[in-house]
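Morning, I've got a small favour to ask if you have a moment. I've dropped the whole record in just underneath, so have a look.
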Amino acid sequence: MSVRALLRPTGLQREHGQIAPLMAVALTLFALFGIVAIDIAMLYDERAEAQTSVDLAALAAAQELPVSPLLAVAQAEDYLRRNGWDLEDPEVTITVNVLGTDQVEVVAQHHQAPLFGAFLGLTYDVGARAVAERTVQGGGNYAILVLDETACQAFYMSGNGEVVIENGGIMVNSSCASSAVRAQGNSDVITDLFHLFHQGGVQIIGNADLDPMPSPVMQRVADPLAGVAPPDLATLGISPDSGGTPGSPSTRTVNGNGSHTLRPGVYYGGLDLGANTDVTLEPGIYALAGGGLRTNGNTDVFGEGVMIYNTEWDGSCGEIHLNGNAAPHLSGYEHAPYEGITFWQDAACTETMTHNGNADTVGGVIYLPTARYSLNGNGDMGPLQIIADTVVISGNGDLEMCYEEFVEIASEEVLRLVQ
């Protein structure tokens, strides 16, 4: 064999010579894809961080609404600045818009230099947008707060009367979908605001009218007095005018024409105030240990700075029953922690408090955490707050009540992202 033949390339050698350039191209492409993949992953992380910053900036800004839109804008910019955004950089664009009275929009964008993609002439824009909203759920100038969370007809209005609440409104916590609020007959409710837990429903029968119609709120309103300890009977001591003793309770009855004065303390067996009687309650706390309170006929009851506390004794509770043309002229207790409270029924007592006849001036809080308040009559109820498990108002007369904040009913601020 000649030397020329030995030096001639074989077929296998020719294939190796063709594969090498292909491998070089393939490796180059793989490298480029790897570079792009790394940059994309970094871009994803950058955008996630940008979205988080913008979300939190929008929430921080929304806290200032609706009082100060200018401060809301400043809060968003300040938050972004403190979290690494250079607002002076021409490559950074920040836009903050106040939308209406309760929303703020934050848009942020900057150019991101890629780690490897710059060699390929690639540039990225990293941006994010968020809209935050500030709302207030629950809380308000509630003259009537209905606590029960599930009862149907938790607020029930019937008859031909009209109830007018000045400077305040109604809140109902019930989630009963069919009739958390029910109005029937020719009854009317006129109030500044009417709130209802969003899962609750309204039932109107006949010509009844609610003005305004209940509007849904997302949060229930908590019992503002739930954390207040009730009076201690031993600390109060027995009243000199009590009809009975702890071992032998007996209702104290006041009868006959004329004027009578009662002193605070524990009444073992309760109180029964007869017809045509004028009764003055000296300032203080009147604890009705069993037996409750009953007024009859044309009884007039006067008392400034008093709280009537209805509780059990020997496992028994009595009702608070204001009957006929009885006209209580009462104002709430004047000392903490019971300041402003006029009637308080122990949570262990579920008996309905009934107020019949011509209502008169009762100033203060009527607090029945587990019981119904039933009102049937007409007249001026005075400045008060009714906080009860359920509320029923009936009859053909017109009632007026004026809200006054004796007990603060806290509102809950809700900040949320809506976009």
Q: What stands out?
A: The chain has a mean pLDDT of 85. The helical segments are 3-7, 11-62, 69-82, 233-236. Residues 53 and 80 are 7 Å apart (CA to CA).
